[in-house]
Amino acid sequence: xxxxxxxxxxxxxKVAERKGGVPLVCLTAYTTPVARLVDPHxxxxxxxDSVGMVLHGLPSTLGVTLExxxxxxxxxxxxxxxxxxxxxxxxxxxxxxxxQAFRNAARVxxxxxxxxxxxxxxETIAETIRFLAARGVPVMGHVGLTPQAVNTFGGYRVQxxxxxxxxxxxxxLAVSEAGAFAVVLEKVPEALARRITGEVAIPTIGxxxxxxxxxxxxxxxxxxxxxxxxxxxxxxxxxxxxxxxxAAVAVxxxxxxxxxxxxxxxxxxxxxxxADADASNSGQAA
Length: 286
Description:
Elements: H1 3-8, H2 12-17, E1 24-28, H3 32-38, E2 44-47, H4 51-54, H5 66-77, E3 84-88, H6 98-112, E4 116-118, H7 126-133, E5 139-144, H8 150-153, H9 165-178, E6 182-186, H10 190-199, E7 204-207, E8 215-218, H11 220-223, H12 241-257, H13 274-281
Parallel strand pairs: 1-2, 1-8, 2-3, 3-4, 4-5, 5-6, 6-7, 7-8
Helix pairs in contact: 5-6, 6-7, 7-9, 9-10
């Protein structure tokens, strides 16, 4: 990476400095091509454990392993030049003790080149956040609906309504005071998100938590219309790539069956043509 790119690259301190400023743009990514696509537009790219559901067909994030997160983190790292890459610590990789969390987080950082990790939980995980931050591991927190606790919550329900709001406020404050540089607020009422954003010293990143937050994050496959198993209310689909892809596959299948593909421009003659060299150099093969 050049010196110019080093200056432009986002870092955890730069994210923290955006508190109350221009909202932070954050998306998930799990592959190199998608990382390249979102990098020019994002401040933060999260390699989320949502990869388990989006790419691996798992019913929840609970089956995601440390090895999966490292593999996808390495792929995303190859596609980024300026965004801050953060990697989710998967379920079971940090809850046992601060020492376990540090050991696994250090491995993730060393093997992927990420600059920070994300941990779910509030007061119960504050000691671990403090332990990691004191040892050079920048941490993004995550409170409200924490998908790794889906069985405890009994589903993907809105958190923090009524008297439950104080629990979320306490969690957010605990994460901030423990040394996290930012915190994700997921699926909480707008008024609560506004209150927490005003009370904590670090940027809040909303997902289903209103525009009052200091930034927003979505799962990239959701906002592009690629993931259709379910559609949370808080997701805005900016396009429908899944429908377009399905239509393209249907046309391909029809043309193959009708022997209209490959056409003359897609096959090779006995005598080489300039286009043949271009195709062979691309390195693409089934």
